[in-house]
Amino acid sequence: MYLLAMIFVAILSNNIVLSQFLGICPYLGTTKRIETSVGMGLAVIFVMVMSAIVTWVIDLFLLQPFSLEYLRTIVFILVIAGLVQFVEMVLKKTNPALFQALGIYLPLITTNCTILGVALLNVQSEHNIIETVVYSLATGIGFTLAMVIMAGIRERLELANMSNYLKGAAVTLVSAGILSLAFMGFKGMVTL
Amino acid sequence: MELTLSMVIVGGLGVFFAGVLAYAAKKFAVEEDPRVELVADLLPGANCGACGLAGCSSAAEKIVAGEVPVDSCIPGGKKVADSICEVLGLESVASEGRKVAEIRCLGTKDVAPDKFDYQGVRDCKAAMMYSGGFKACTYGCLGLGTCVEACPFEALSMGANGLPQVDTEKCTGCGVCAKACPRNVIHIELADKKAKYIPCNSKASGKVVRQACEVGCIGCRACVKACPNEAVTVENNLAVINREKCTDCGKCVEACKRGIIKDVGTVLVLK
Q1: Nearest CB partner across the interface for B20, out of A58, A62, A82
Q2: What mean pLDDT, rounded, does chain A reach?
Q3: Residues B101, B178 contacting (CB under 8 angstroms)
Q4: DSSP, res B115
Q5: In this structure, is the dihedral angle defined by the CA atoms of residues A102, A108, A114 and A118, taken in order, positive or negative?
Q6: Residue A116: how many other CB atoms lie within 10 Å
Q7: pLDDT tens across B106-149, in order?
Q8: B25 near A CB under 8 A
């Protein structure tokens, strides 16, 4: 039950992009077309789960025993960057089809703040390993959801008739704000 | 003590990952055909998609693998095809002259009126959904610039007269605009030959054309009779000049009652 609540919170009521305002850069940068946003979203889910597990293990066995928690940020950055590089190489060799699909998005999200954010949130909220996996998976799904909705909106906005001063970045930011407001409706429905 | 420990742990992790990555780079190295990169460098790199493949890099892979012909790149034309042949050690292929986009419509607002006032989305494809477009002529250019948006080389622009203009220097003849145009007004044609052409796309009967447009081809066949080289044919009420046969003699221009036969490559700006 706790895990179900956690999934609901991570996807809807405390969405990583729309409520926690992490990962705004890919949210605005790669949502011009639905296809690209799906590709980006899948790559984020993949990397997020993987890096959350590895950072959780490193935190438990390397940082906590020596009470070096204050080093979390820098160590996690190092670990995530190295890990994504490594996985990219392995994928290219062993699974070219998946590499083609995730392609350019993998290196893009090496330094994505959602990935680091989730890794840090996991250890700060003292999740166990199952909760870590579930939380990062659900957060990744929430991220993809926000991306796809935004891409759908922007594809329509492309064709909309509007005044010149609103076009482009202005209307994108306005719609991002309204979308975030809409997701506020989920606030308080479930408490952890 | 704590300082040393943190240095050892962060430094150790760094060295560890460096080692793993160095090992992985060797162990998981993917061998690529060096010719793919050479061919990719020769291609224009605009990823226009005129070849029907995903982009220039995938075209390069397919060309090297021999899955598609070396002259698949339409914008690159003969020049690119020849240099690719050089890299791959093949005989160079014969290819035709340079082709560019040609707008086959003269129907500005003054001469080809609208049948209703359109206030919808500024896009030709969207406009087509409202009873087949707002123009009285159902074959002419709607002038909302879908082709201009589509052009990957910025060779098209919207003229002051409301019709798209082709910059023949920038145009590579890739045909993306021709595919984007919902009314098939744009044709890809040989650019550098001196010849005449008829900038009209209307396949409606002469009577209908007269009502809808002052500068439409009515299919009267005066040009067919005037042409000494049998270069002009009328099909579906529309005269078309065969560019191969045309000798640019100009007899059809004199014969045309509508005065719409023009020189190839002239930028069309009407009165």
Answers
A1: A82
A2: 88
A3: yes
A4: S
A5: positive
A6: 20
A7: 888 888 889 888 888 888 988 998 888 899 999 999 999 899 98
A8: yes
Q: Percentage of chain B surpassing pLDDT 90? A: 17
Higher pLDDT, B192 or B178: B178
Which of A51, A122, A125 has the alpha carbon at shortest distance from A88? A51
| A89/B24 Cβ within 8 A | yes
Pick B14's closest partner by Cβ from A71, A78, A93. Answer: A78
Ordered domains of chain B (ranges, CATH): 34-88 (1.10.15.40), 99-263 (3.30.70.20)
Which chain A residue is nearest to residue B126, measuring alpha carbons?
A: A159
C-beta separation of B46 from B56 below 8 A: yes
Residues of B in contact with A159 (CB under 8 A): 121, 123, 126
- The answer to whether the predicted template modeling score (pTM) of the entire model surpasses 0.80 is no
User: What are the C-alpha distances in Å from B23 to residues A89, A90, A126, B16, B29?
Assistant: 11, 11, 34, 11, 10
| Interface size, chain A vs chain B, as Cβ–Cβ contacts under 8 Å | 52
Of the candidates B9, B17, B30, the beta carbon closest to that of A82 is on: B17
Instruction: Name the A residues in 33-52 with CB < 8 Å from any B CB.
Output: none
Instruction: Give phi and psi for B181, each to the nearest 5.
Output: -70, 120
